[in-house]
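Session log. Operator J.P. requested a structure for one protein chain; no other inputs attached. Running the standard single-chain path with token output.
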Amino acid sequence: MTRTGSIYLLSIPGTLSPKTLEEARVVHNMTAGNPQGVAAARSLGDLSHMVYIPIDHAGPQAGKFLILDQWNDLDGLNQFFADKQVQEGGAAIFTEREPVVWAPAEGFTGYHTPAPYGCNDRYVAVVRGTVSSHEEARKVHNELVEKNMNNARMAGDLSHEAYFRLAAPGSPESLEFFAVDVWMNSDGMMAYYNDPKFAEGFSKLFTGMPSSSIWVHPAGEWVEW
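Structure written below.
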């Protein structure tokens, strides 16, 4: 395997095949959480595997599911997901899914800060949209993030990571942008995102209306690493 200094993000949003979250938990732990499969994935470069459901999972988003994996070996990732059993496991979890590999957005400001003791809630906010160019997006993004980093932290933001969709070899760089923030306070998060000043700066980053969503960890014991 070819380990790299970059950590790639694999996002798999989709709709659950099982009818209940408990049934989904059992299926996930038997497939994606199978000890042999976990060992194989980790040996091929899978650094982490996390599962999420929408924050409003009892409402219109019921049945939606998100997997976020971090990999540091693209060859290993491709080898793992080419396996027939892995593909069958994915089909057992989802009725439909869209796996996408994202590469770190070079030169885009990001941060990771520790959570104070006892602050154990986690909310994952993701945004996905198209930008006009990497250079212009970098300028707008960094100005927005650096200007608001302290306020975001005081509101409960723990981390911010920016990515672009991984382009196929020989193809132009992708303009599809993806960002992930992890929060420890839902009220602070919503107040921050609803601030008109933040919304105004945020809107300048994309060529059109981006998609955004907020996710939480489902109840119960799900195999993660």
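Operator note: The chain has two domains: 8-103, 105-216.
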